[in-house]
Specification:
heterotrimer, A mainly alpha (about 575), B mainly alpha (about 200), C alpha+beta (about 300), C: about 300 residues, five-stranded mixed sheet, 10 strands, elongated
């Protein structure tokens, strides 16, 4: 049965099949300190998705407030707290942990033929730091909300509520620790746990992307910790590192903050680049174009990403030589990013594209991320940035990168690996409705913001000049459509997970190693260590033979698993 | 990429029989990667300190009491020496000589505690407090943060000593705990040398 | 067939170039310009937008073309052609963007320097290569007029001290001692602002000037411009400065130099008659702007000021 035949409707679960399987974990395992990377990956994905819904609800409040020029819905008092938490949740509790913790955990060991991550317990610790960090942050709503923005620039962050700001710092330190621990794990796993046959250039591109991401996390996140440690002393102990009244310098904070927070953008997009490089070849049935260029451009972005931070500070009175250096470095990042986009286009060219939900989101990602990249070039130019800095143009840019880029990519990844993760098929029709609503809602919500910013609307305001009303209303309506778009997704995912049609082991006929095991994979992934009989993207070369071989391999594996079953249960 | 594949039946059987490749102990490599991140944390604090120093008209700011160099100098010597002491333990464990490891680790822990006591003494006798000025704040935060790392290092060493009671827990082949504690101790030591140079000499 | 394809390709290229050029110069995304710096900005922005539009059309065009041309034919379960790369293509799409961005960086730097030194003024009279289409013919003539006046007189720049405090702007003219909550400047003259923040960071932004500079607590920052069009323009705070950040606004009034001189004299006289404390607190700001604020906001501001 081909994957095409499965599209269209839910079919009742085949229950006789269900209890036969020794491969599924009981439901309660997801509430335990499991050290299985697949359990942890699912824990990350589900937890972070809940935070996404919370962050999205806050975005809804923001757009409701901005539907009219007056501050009449949430009011001045609460507005800043709402956008501060919105940004913090979306960055630290959704995109970063969903990509690295969620997809990284689930896929990296499978893709390199490993049984688990290098340090399974550390992995579980990294995950279990996320819920307390997130809950702590959200509890601040009940005491004192941090409201100096997710950037928390002093002196403002020292003058708003002490309790809220302290909670924010604590929460970010917890989440940052989690992120560093996960990065240690990925670095070691990717460098040292590959099956012996697999050289670095045999690795799937997602693994390259995760390696680059992890290096960035290791080198950049501690700088944020340093900044926050000093900020907390200013806040709680009365020092004045960043407080000019005591001789400190608020700009030093900005440097330390952006030394992390610009690379953080790449932490949020590199794994998506990796996933897109996996998804496009499978559904276009073509080898990825220019494998090495894509792999090395990830590393180039990792390196360059560390030396562009001050482009966030072009209006901060930064010295001229610094502005020039950071402008050029920032512009140069467009080159490796362009290499990726052109290579993806060349991958599609001459393919035989299958329009499944994963592919729609994947191609949607390319088209939307491009816009974020182009507005990024405008922001990189010092004189142009001076006008649009801290305006709605920046809000538009960052959402094209982080929503049009990261979030569309996350959805592409969820659809692509859903059969592998759950062992069940999702409903294609609902997936396509989800894509259409997301695409329309997203562009309505964020495209007009470019014009708003250029015309003179600053960001982070609850009240604005009435001349901007119409465009703001379009943005708010777009946000409503975006909110509605999550409904078909949620229905699809929940119903399919419980009662979806059984998935084949390799429904998309992919060639990376996660497709050589069962869906879902057994504990420790492979009964026998897989051998590398094909490159990850050898479509049209010898994919038929390889796929047939995969089938035999899984059959052998399942046979072995069944013969082991009596001794287990 | 593995372009050529010969998918003979014989190979399929070979797959079924091949066993999982055994990975060597990766924990020490993990510790090294973690210390990379730790060093960036210290680097960020050093960078902030240097910026404060070089943008200030006078440094330390006027009115900062003179710092005494004798005690911190001696303290530094103790810490630097302890790195050589702990290194003896590695040679010892290669010879499977656990009692010698215990001796050297015990001595290192003692030296670490002397350092901490020295620092506590210095804190109590300094004429400036945490919020006196930017130099004072930097001084306390940097040395305090480093002191916290020394404390962690001492605890790690004591943990290794505790575990070494069990015969055969550490051997020439298997001594991750010893290697990790030593590596961490060297790291703490190197950070102190930079810190001492920045705060007392520069 | 090959010739037809080539012709189509060339035609597409021409159409694309024309479309990019047209959009880059007719985008209506920016407000009117009122300073020479703004014209420099618009020139660079339009150039950048032409390039961005071109790249956008190429990439989205290929993507959409692929989406239709290379969809799986019904019943075909085979794979696409196994091409793994093409060195020439890869070199081209690495080198061309590299050249474009480096050229943009150099151009940006050039524009930036001219904005800073005010030498954009000298360019305005005779060079239109960089300045976008000036808002209107009249404005252009007006600009040239002030331009000439400026070069003839070559007066030193007018210096104004700007203080930002939570939700208000204070402008002090050190030569005359005039203090105002609105910024009056003469058209055609170079103005230099020396800016400090009293409490938290703020940012001084005039969209019609395309200029923005942060006010940083504990530092003095500077911003220079030459206004060239008489009118009133909003001054917007662009750096988050607290709950009422959104209403921290004032007016920048560009006047004919004679009108400006009269205004200054009146202010000096008024100060002599009613000596006021220099301190302009938020409450004064709220009073002054009561008409433009909703009553509860004004009330809030007064509450803050009294706090």
């Amino acid at each position: 049965m081909t994957a095409q035949a499965q599209i269209g409707s839910f079919s009742p679960a085949d229950d006789s099949h269900r209890h036969n399987s020794t491969l599924e974990q009981p439901w309660w395992i997801y509430f335990t300190f499991s050290t299985d990377h697949k359990v942890i990956g699912i824990q990350y994905l589900v937890t972070t998705f809940i935070f996404y819904l919370i962050g999205g609800a806050l975005a809804g409040l923001i757009r409701a407030e901005l539907y009219t020029p007056e501050a009449d819905v949430v009011g001045f008092e609460y507005y800043n707290g709402i956008f501060t938490i919105h940004a913090t949740v979306m960055i630290f509790l959704w995109i970063v942990p969903a990509l690295t913790g969620g997809f990284g955990n689930y896929l990296v060991p499978l893709m390199i033929g490993a049984r688990d991550m290098a340090f399974p317990k550390l992995n579980a610790v990294a995950f279990w730091l996320i819920p307390p960090g997130g809950i702590l942050l959200l509890l601040s709503f009940f005491v004192d909300t941090p409201d100096a923005g997710w950037t928390s620039y002093p002196p403002l962050s020292l003058l708003t509520g002490v309790v809220g700001q302290a909670i924010w710092i604590m929460s970010i330190l917890i989440l940052g620790t989690s992120s560093i621990l996960a990065a240690v794990n990925f670095t070691v796993t990717i460098l040292k746990m590959r099956i012996p046959d697999m050289t670095m250039t045999d690795m799937p591109l997602f693994c390259w992307a995760m390696l680059a991401t992890s290096i960035l996390t290791l080198v950049a996140t501690p700088a944020l910790a340093g900044a926050l440690i000093l900020l907390s002393f200013d806040l709680l102990a009365g020092t004045s590192f960043f407080n000019p009244t005591g001789g400190g310098d608020p700009v030093v904070y900005q440097h330390l903050f952006w030394f992390y927070s610009h690379p953080a953008v790449y932490i949020m997009i590199l794994p998506v680049f990796g996933m897109i490089s996996e998804i496009l070849p499978v559904h276009a049935r073509r080898p990825i174009f220019a494998y090495k260029a894509i792999a090395y451009s990830s590393m180039a972005i990792c390196g360059l990403g560390l030396i562009v931070w001050a482009h966030h500070m072009f209006t901060s009175g930064t010295p001229n030589w610094m502005r020039i250096f950071f402008m050029i470095a920032t512009m140069v990042i467009a080159v490796p990013t362009g290499i990726k986009i052109f290579s993806w286009l060349a991958t599609l060219w001459g393919g035989k594209i299958r329009y499944r939900s994963a592919m729609l989101f994947g191609m949607g990602f390319v088209s939307m991320f491009l816009i974020g990249g182009l507005s990024g070039i405008i922001l990189a130019s010092v004189p142009l940035d001076i006008h649009v800095h801290d305006t709605y143009f920046v809000v538009a840019h960052l959402h094209y990168v982080l929503f049009g880029g990261s979030v569309l990519g996350i959805f592409a990844g969820i659809y692509h690996w859903f059969p592998k993760i759950t062992g069940r098929m999702y409903n294609e029709l609902l997936g396509k409705i989800h894509f259409a609503l997301t695409f329309i809602g997203f562009n309505l919500a964020f495209l007009p913001m470019h014009k708003l910013g250029l015309e003179g609307m600053p960001r982070r305001v609850a009240q604005y000049d009435p001349q901007f009303t119409t465009l703001n209303q379009v943005c708010s309506i777009g946000t409503l459509i975006l909110a509605i778009s999550t409904l078909p997704f949620l229905i699809n995912i929940i119903v399919s997970w419980v009662a979806g049609k059984r998935a084949e082991n390799n429904p998309w006929e992919g060639l990376t190693l996660e497709w050589t095991t069962s869906s879902p994979p057994p504990i420790e992934n492979f009964v026998e260590e897989p051998i590398l009989i094909t490159g990850p993207y050898d479509y049209g070369v010898h994919s038929r033979e390889a796929l047939a071989f995969f089938k035999e391999q899984v059959a052998l594996m399942q046979k072995a698993a069944q013969s082991q079953q009596p001794s287990h249960s | 990429m593995q372009a050529e594949a010969n998918l003979s039946a014989a190979q399929v059987t070979a797959v079924a029989h091949s066993s999982h490749h055994h990975h060597p102990d990766l924990r020490l490599f993990g510790v090294k990667v973690f210390l990379l991140a730790e060093s960036v944390l210290f680097l960020s604090l050093f960078a902030a300190y240097l910026t404060f120093k070089f943008t200030a008209p006078v440094w330390p700011p006027e009115g900062t009491p003179e710092r005494e160099l004798l005690l911190p100098g001696l303290n530094s010597l103790v810490l630097i020496a302890s790195s050589f002491v702990i290194h003896q333990a590695e040679d010892a464990i290669r010879e499977n000589d656990v009692p010698a490891v215990q001796k050297w680790f015990g001595l290192t822990a003692l030296m670490g505690m002397i350092f901490l006591a020295g620092q506590a003494y210095e804190y109590l006798h300094l004429e400036f407090g945490l919020t006196t000025n930017l130099y004072a704040s930097s001084f306390y935060v940097l040395t305090g943060f480093h002191g916290l790392h020394v404390l962690v290092g001492v605890l790690l060493i004591l943990g290794v000593l505790w575990r070494s009671r069990v015969a055969g827990h550490y051997s020439a082949e298997k001594h991750f705990g010893i290697a990790a504690a030593e590596l961490y101790w060297h790291f703490v030591d190197v950070i102190w040398i930079i810190l001492f140079f920045l705060l007392y000499i520069l | 067939m090959g010739i037809l394809n080539n012709i189509l390709l060339v035609a597409a290229g021409i159409a694309l170039t024309l479309a990019s050029l047209w959009f880059g110069n007719n985008h209506h995304l920016l407000p009117e310009t009122a300073a020479t710096e703004a014209e420099l900005f618009d020139g660079l922005f339009n150039t950048t937008l032409v390039i961005a539009t071109g790249i956008f059309l190429v990439v989205e065009g290929i993507l959409i073309f692929c989406a239709f041309r290379f969809r799986k034919p019904p019943g075909d379960d085979t794979d696409g052609s196994p091409v793994e790369g093409n060195i020439l293509l890869e070199v081209v799409w690495t080198a061309v963007p590299a050249v474009i961005v480096l050229w943009l960086a150099v151009d940006s730097f050039d524009v930036y320097q001219r904005m800073q030194t005010g030498s954009g003024i000298l360019m305005l009279g005779h060079s239109h290569s960089h300045s976008a289409e000036v808002a209107s013919h009249e404005a252009s003539e007006q600009a040239t007029h002030y331009q000439e006046a400026f070069t003839k007189a070559s007066r030193p720049a007018l210096e104004v001290e700007v203080t930002g405090m939570q939700y208000a702007w204070v402008f002090t003219y050190p030569e005359t001692g005039v203090v105002s909550s609105e910024l009056h400047v003469p058209a055609g003259e170079r103005v230099i602002l020396h800016m400090t923040a009293q409490d938290v960071n703020h940012a001084f932004w005039v969209p019609q000037f395309r200029l923005k500079q942060d006010l940083i607590a504990g530092r003095t920052t500077e911003l220079a411009f030459t206004a060239n069009k008489i009118g009133e323009y909003p001054i917007v705070c662009a750096e988050l400065c607290g709950p009422y950040h959104g209403i921290m606004a004032s007016q920048l009034i560009v006047e004919d130099p004679e009108v400006f001189a009269t205004w200054q004299q009146q202010q000096v006289l008024a100060m002599k008659e009613h000596p006021q404390p220099i301190q302009l607190a938020s409450s004064a700001f709220a009073e002054a702007h009561q008409h433009s604020l909703s009553p509860d906001v004004a009330h809030h501001l007064r509450a803050i000021a009294h706090h």
